[in-house]
Amino acid sequence: VRSGASLQATNLDGDTPLQSFMKIVERSNGYAQRFRLPPREVDVLPKLACARALMAPDAQAVLLEGWLSPRMREVLRNTAQITYEEITTSTPVELHRMECTEYIPEETLTQVTKASSKKFYDGWGAIFCCVAGLLNEGLAPTVQRIKDAFTGKYDDDYQCFIEKGGLIEFALDAILDISENILIDPDILTDLKDIDFLPTTPLDMQFDIARFMCIMNGGGTWNSRGPYDDENDHLEVEVDEDDESYGDY
Known about the structure:
- The chain is built from 13 helices and no strands.
- It is an all-alpha fold.
- α4 packs across α10 (168-184) and α10 runs antiparallel to α12 (207-214).
- The longest helix is centred in the middle third of the chain and has 20 residues, at 117-136.
- It is elongated.
């Protein structure tokens, strides 16, 4: 490209270099998605480098931190904000059945007692709120940035979530998965009216890049992906209906 190769040249199928490259990417993405595999640096970084090299300069210019597209950013922000609001207005029983809670493994949920339930889920919600805030500020929501946000101000609910075995990675996993499903489903996508005014890029649907940049390359660790709903189905939540601590829900 730097030597003057045309980005608009086409092959026998009528595809430009970028279109041809993205077709290959879509085929490779299907395998990783089908088996719920965490993204690998050896796959993600070369793909990102090639995609950016084949994108027009104006398309590259709209990427936040060189990888996060406007459309993906808006869907991630919307998902984080709405999920936070749902968490803060739900009862403990409703929280246990929410889609986002399926991304917390059984070994963590079994540590949550009746006495700690409210603080645990408030801490869970605080992470979603933090992600929405970072995206509003024009920052990618990496694990390290979220940790730093809570390090700067002590949050008792967040500390309870962490002490019970909760991880920031669980929340990012949920946000990324839910957002990907939204972008795939046109019926859901139509509810996000503002997204139609945002530019499209080849990276709009590259959630493996987002997972890698936010988690593995963002100061986190990740051995498996949620949801863990199958292993959590048998769990029951103890709820004291007379306990006034649930009143805020």
